[in-house]
Amino acid sequence: AKFPVDRIGWYYQSMWVSISNAVVLAAGAVLFRAIAPDSPAMAHNPLDRRGVFQCAAVGLCFVVGGLAFNKAVMQERVSLVVAVTSIYPIVSAALAWYFLRESLAPRQIAGLVLLVAGLVLVSGKG
Description:
mainly alpha
């Protein structure tokens, strides 16, 4: 992402990535429906209101995250930005615990602690 961010800026890089994602996903949906119309994946109602709302919320999170990532890449070392974004499993685990009531095994908690320790080591100067 660093090269296009340096050339066209963080906002336009995010915009073009989003547009290309939409085009690729739309083409994939058309192709998938043509190739495997009886697939269980095609059995769902793509216009279910609650599902569409949830997808829009996830999409908003992706857009905000992408914008933040590209802005950070423009202002900070890429190696540090990528290290910070690699802690997303901590956010995912916390959200799964809160919203889905999933429990974390001791081994998973240890892995999340190691993620934080790794981030501290990578982000240090020197």
